[in-house]
Amino acid sequence: MILEPALILELALLGLCTGFLAGLLGIGGGMIMVPFLTIMLGQRGVSPDLAVKMAIATSMATIIFTSISSVRAHHRKGAVRWDLVKGLAPGIVAGSMVASLGIFALVKGTQLALFFALFVGFSATQMFLDKKPAPARQMPGWAGQLGAGGIIGLLSGLVGAGGGFISVPFMTWCNVAIHNAVATSAALGFPIAVANVAGYVVSGLQARDLPDHAFGYLWLPALGVIALCSVLMAPVGAATAHRLPVKKLKRVFASVLYLLAAYMLYRGLAA
After folding, report:
1. Is residue 23 within 8 Å of 73, Cβ to Cβ?
2. At the N or C end, where does the chain have fewer CB atoms within 10 A?
């Protein structure tokens, strides 16, 4: 597969957009990348089933870089709840390994596309409705955070996202302020990405009909270009997040997820 100039431009634009949204919404950019990478791979002769899996794996790999850039910007503003990161991260790593090493290799890409669409649509609805949590509700203790982290890591590994689509609603439901939830989600993206990428590489080494420049399920050209561009834009998105009102930030988050859920639902049903 030749890395033509047009493809480099497409990947660069995707990287700039996803980097900005990673900083703005704490979603790591994976929710944006998966649909577009699926299209790009399909246009270059990769089968629909393999294209979805490679898009999920590659988008997750870029989160390693965007989360570092985004969380530095949020940390400077004192928005990251590091106590929650420490509580959720162990479960996230365990859940991610189960998803990427086991479930991901066994299910079909079209099934992953449908799961992506349905779960992201549900998450978007919860955020868009802006339901107010009970005033007394707080984050659970150590065991509860371990379990919640496991679910976040598992679901993130199946859809190639940094976990913000579930961790942000979960934390706001537990009365964590939205800006703190977004910043903390950005920090959680790193352990989610590292654990899942390791699993995607191992499970993908035996996959058939991989395109050129693939390493396991990772598409290396996309990883390199998108990571470079997204790192540049993530701090801009993070700075913008701290200037938006709470309700507007939630609505922006939900609207983006609705659009991507609709596309992936179409892909899954069409296949």
Report:
1. yes
2. N
